[in-house]
Amino acid sequence: MLTRRRFKQTKPLHERLADEATRLREEARTLAPGRRREMLLRRARQDETAIRIDAWLHSPGLRAPT
Asked: How many alpha carbons fall within 13 Å on the CB side of residue 4?
């Protein structure tokens, strides 16, 4: 059986997602309008949405469903 390579993340998830979104937007700025650019911008928006969801999940006001 194969073993997984595991490593400890040095930055929290929200920082990694923010860095990735910034990098994707910068890359999209260099491209002409087209499919590749739209895919990069879409991925950047998905990362930003994931940041908001992560913040919501870790908010102190979040309650478990009853």
From this structure: 3
Q: Show me where the domains of the chain are located.
A: 13-57
**pLDDT tens-digit readout, 13-48:** 999 999 999 999 999 999 999 999 999 999 999 999
- Residue by residue, DSSP assigns the chain as -PPPP----SS-HHHHHHHHHHHHHHHHHTSPSSHHHHHHHHHHHHHHHHHHHHHHHT-TT-----
Which residue type does 30 have? T
Amino acid at 28: A
Task: Please give the structure tokens belonging to residue 18.
Answer: 């923010």
